[in-house]
Amino acid sequence: MQRILEVKDLSINFYLREGVVHALTDVNFEVFENETLGVIGESGSGKSVTVQSILGILSQPPAKIVSGSIRFEPESRNLELNLLPTYGDTYRNVRWNDISMIFQEPMSSFSPLHSIGDQISEALTLHRPELSETDVLSVCLGLLEKVGIPSPAMFFKRYPHEFSGGMRQRAMIAMALVCNPKILIADEPTTALDVTIEAQILELLESIKSEFNMSMIYISHDLAVIGEISDRILVMYLGRVVESGVADEVIDNPLHPYTRALLKSIPKIDQPIESLDPIEGSIPSPFEVHTGCPFYSRCTERLGEICLRQKPAHKTYNNGHKVSCHLHA
Amino acid sequence: MLTYTIKRLFQLIPILFVISVVAYAIIELPPGDFADFYISSLRATGVTVLEDEALRIKEQYGFNAPVVERYWRWLENIIFHGNFGYSFEYQKPVNEIIAEKLPLSIGLTFGALIISWALAIPIGIYSAIHQYSKFDYFFTFIGFLGLATPPFLMALIFAWLFLKFFDYSVLGLYSPEYVTAPWSFDKFIDLCKHLILPVILIGLQGTGTIIRVMRGNLLDELKKPYVITAKAKGLKFRDLLLKYPVRMAINPIISTIGWLLPALIAGEILISIVLGIQTLGPVLLRSVLSQDMWLAASIVMILSLLTIIGSLISDLLLVWLDPRIRFERLSK
Amino acid sequence: MGSFSNSSSVINEEDKNFYYATQWSLIRSRFRQHRLASISLIFLGLLYLFAIFSDFLVPYSSTQRFSKYNFSAPTSIYIYDSEAGFSSPFVYGQKKILDKKTFSWKYEPDLTKKVYIQFFTEGEEYSLFGIFKSNIHLFGIDEETPVFLFGSDRLGRDVFSRTIHGSQISLSIGLVGVSLSFLIGILLGGVSGYYGGYIDDLIQRFIDFMISLPTIPLWMAFSAVLPRDWSSLKTYFAITIILSIISWGPLARVTRGKILALREEDYTLAARAAGASTPRIIVKHLLPGFSSHLIVSITLSIPGMILAETALSFLGLGIQPPAVSWGTLLQDSQDLMAITNQPWLLIPAIFVIGTVLLFNFVGDGLRDAADPYS
Ligand SMILES: Nc1ncnc2c1ncn2[C@@H]1O[C@H](COP(=O)(O)OP(=O)(O)OP(=O)(O)O)[C@@H](O)[C@H]1O
Ligand code: SF4
Ligand SMILES: [Mg+2]
Predict the structure, then answer these.
(1) In chain C, fewer beta carbons within 10 Å around the N or the C end?
(2) What is the DSSP string of B197-243?
């Protein structure tokens, strides 16, 4: 399998009036062709910052890439995205054309003043100027139908606030597909929706992914969802990748105490609801600087002095399973 | 949309009623009534008015009737005969005076509205994008200064500067050689030249505030997720900016017509008075100074009407431009 | 039951006081960090102090005329003389000279006549706050050679003295007018926000209507109605009432909005449950809750009042002579000739613009301090 995206030693800071937020620290991962990478972590762990930095849509300032690289198609085109000018032609052509994104909030991610059709077709006319108006329309209507919207032609002319969250998220998926991208990023696409709709959307995404031959980065803080949809998993905590590997490996044989805690907190059908085990303690302030392991304050398996004082190194096992914890030195 | 417009027009009726009451209060408030005033002004011009003739005049104008009836008679005259009464100061029907001066007043105010938007919106956009830049600070300061300077002072100072540095008098509507000249292209150019400064000065009454509203709105909008979506699609910055956040930020500006028009009218009146431009402003001043209340009340009423119509138009414009509001209002 | 609700409301009260105490000290410390606003506040304070002690601070009353010195340019004050070296401040006498080119009178310093400025000197008698009679002025000079810091007007009156005297009316009318507007606003806004429903609808419509009226023409028409023979005090109050009756709209709107937002909060519900009456709830519980926002709105509406008074008096429709305000002073500079020949007559304008700017800066600072996230 070919690598399509390679992120290496990526560190991103936010420079705010209140101080510096180290949003990402030495993040490493790869995305392979036709696979789904699941990213999991609690709120504030840097999942959104990671994927937004790939698309180059972070506001800089306050954000700044302090080190590392993001390479798109390292085997062939080898575009070093982090070096491209944000609004330069090259980067703009990568956006939506090669990598597109489904956002967390289907309501506010659409402009309320423009019709859904306008917003969906916009990217297509931008990246495929050779298409005629009727071609554009037929592509869009076809996609709307594919994502399960009952009467696409009518829908096309209407405005976002006239529809439910589920419908809007379907429209967002259709919009993300217009240019037939190589990577589809889904940043918590179901958080704002209720559970039954969440299942439908997940199903839709899986079928679309295989039909369109895309790679997908799927973000969630629900390990159950991630385990189901992913080929490989990335576990993030406080801006760091603490564990990564093939999905089955990570789920069946979690190495990092944080991943283990996350797994324990998943409700299982055959388990009584009382034994649900949310992770103890609260997430440290984003301004805090850690000399040792960032999970130290909440870790139930910590080793003492070494965990507090020394940053755990990355350890890679033969099967590609990686972890960063002193338990696995 | 049509039914909504008609509905809004019907809602104007109580408002018009309140305005007419306020205007009539202006007529009734001064001590003594108009008949007295009229009779004494007739006498002052040398006409002999006998007592019974005075009574007849009082009768004719209905000054012996109770106040509600007098009000109704006055309103009836306006509604059914388009008759606003008589100006004792100008010795002319009020209608004639207003017909003569109103077009220029409306023209100046409307021109000023356009100017203030045309200036404020681009500056507001630029200030927001270059937040905390020298440009931003400069216009924030100019905006404050504009807010703090009364319009008549602004007019005085500019007229003085023009006289001093360009040796050019901006007073009046025409240069002396054109005042009595017949209409010609040159006279028209001369008129335009004289109107530019007043229009800009009046426009400045709102510019500072609109810049700040626009800047604030745009800064808010720029943080919204739909801007990130648009950026992620690969749009150029300029296209993205103008299509999404600027559009969003301009909508609330349209609804500022509600307070902008009164401010512009205030500016129009004061600036016209200072610069000697023959609009309703100087007429209003002369009428209130001479207690010619029919004229004064009519002007107040017409100006109030203008602002009310202005805010109605801005409201309809907003419904037309903003699908959310359209959806909400029209579906009710 | 009675004792239960009593004790719970006592706790509520204490919690609330604590909450507001910390909130206010927070606002104060954030305001202090706002340098422009803090400095503006100090200058505003000084202006108001000057207004209060104007009789003492200026050498002349607002009506004192020096008939030989009409349209005299501002007097220069010297502390150095080539012969005598440095000394306490002094001025030169003035001679009137006919300009042969323009045929107008001009004043030139008479270098032979040197008059020292005296401090804490005796002058015209006045009564401070209407109680303390005194004739001591901060500075003065003998009758023969008057000192005109800002020049003199057509009748030979000292523009400096008149400007400072005029600040009494100009500065106070803003405060009094806004207090009145505020009262109307609180009343209507409070009722509207508290009862909601169709009463709210009606009042809101009315507020919208008031805001959309053109204020200047209404002000002009109503103030023209005032009898010219009224005393200055009566005119002053009448003008203030006219100003506030026409411009309470925006303040009422803010009040309504805040009350709507706050009435849902816990402590009002608790007070209501404890059986407090509605006006009592508005005054005791709601007012402190949004006073920081109200102070911002109030601060930002004072300049409007000051500007309105200035405009009306400038047109001859507001304060009537012999009373002085900045507006009446500016009447003297109505035509271009006057400004060209006697630009110092525009000095009161600097006070108007300055005061309005200061209020705006303070208001902005307060807004940032009260609501850092907006
Ligand atoms: N625009 C921004 N300004 C300042 N700080 C930011 C910004 N965006 C993100 N951060 C900071 O970066 C860190 C990571 O945020 P991020 O949004 O990536 O978290 P996340 O994992 O996506 O969380 P969630 O599950 O809530 O979406 C957080 O500590 C956040 O405070
Ligand atoms: S390094 Fe130590 S503290 Fe951190 S996760 Fe591993 S055991 Fe826990
Ligand atoms: Mg996120």
Answers:
(1) N
(2) HHHHHHHHHHHHHHHHHHHHHHHHHHTSHHHHHHHHTT--HHHHHHH
Q: Do residue B36 and residue B117 come from a single domain?
A: no
CA of B313 to the centre of ligand 2 (A): 66
Looking at A227-236, A267-276, B255-264, C318-327, which range is the least confident one?
A267-276
Give the pLDDT score at C5: 40
Q: Is B58 among the domain residues?
A: yes
CA distance B209 to chain C (A): 12
Q: What is the CATH number of the domain that holds B197?
A: 1.10.3720.10
**Rounded Cα gap, residues B124 and B114, in angstroms:** 15
Q: How many domains is chain B partitioned into structurally?
A: 2
Report the DSSP pairing between strands A19-32 and B92-93.
unpaired
Residue C372 has pLDDT above 60, yes or no: no
Average pLDDT over residues A154-171: 85
What are the structure tokens assigned to C122, written together? 């005796």
Mean of pLDDT over chain B: 83
Say yes or no: B160 and B287 in one domain. Answer: yes
Supply the range of the domain harboring residue B322.
Answer: 97-331
Question: What integer pLDDT is reported at residue C1 of this predicted model?
Answer: 37
Residue nearest to atom 24 of ligand 1 (CA): A43
Asked whether residue A232 carries a pLDDT value surpassing 80, the answer given is yes
Q: What is the pTM of this model?
A: 0.80
Is B17 within a domain? no
* One domain, residues B327 and B273: yes
Q: Which residues pair with A131 in a beta bridge?
A: none
Please check the confidence at residue C9 and state whether its pLDDT lies above 50: no
CA nearest A94 in B: which residue? B234
Residue B25 domain-assigned (yes or no): no
The domain made up of A3-98+220-322 has a fold known as Rossmann fold (3.40.50)
The answer to whether C42 and C49 have CB atoms below 8 angstroms apart is no
Task: Write phi, then psi, for C20 (nearest 5 degrees).
Answer: -70, -35
What does the domain layout of chain A look like in residue ranges? Answer: 3-98+220-322
Tell which of A113, A114, A120, A177 to mutate to test the B interface (max B CBs under 10 Å): A113
Which residues of chain B lie closer than 8 angstroms to C225, CB-CB?
A: 26, 29-30, 291
Neighbours of A131 (CB within 10 A): 15
Give me the mean pLDDT over the A298-304 stretch.
Answer: 80
pLDDT tens per residue, range B104-123: 889 899 999 999 889 889 99
Q: Please tell me which of the candidates B225, B230, B324 has its beta carbon nearest to residue A161.
A: B324
The domain spans of chain C are: 39-52+161-370, 72-152
A84 contact residues in B (CB cutoff 8 A): none
C96-121 average pLDDT score: 71
Ligand 2 pocket check for A186: Cβ under 6 Å:
no
What's the CATH fold of domain C39-52+161-370? Answer: MetI-like fold (1.10.3720)
In the numeric block, the tokens 């150095």 are attached to C80
For residue A41, which atom of ligand 1 is closest to its CA? 21
Check pocket membership of A308 for ligand 2, CB cut-off 6 A: no
Q: Is residue B235 part of a domain?
A: yes
Q: Which two tokens stand for residue C285?
A: 């519980």
Quick one: pLDDT at residue C270? 64
B166-184 average pLDDT score: 72
Note whether C touches A: 3 CB pairs or more under 8 A: no
Which residues does residue A102 pair with via DSSP β-bridges, in sequence order? A186
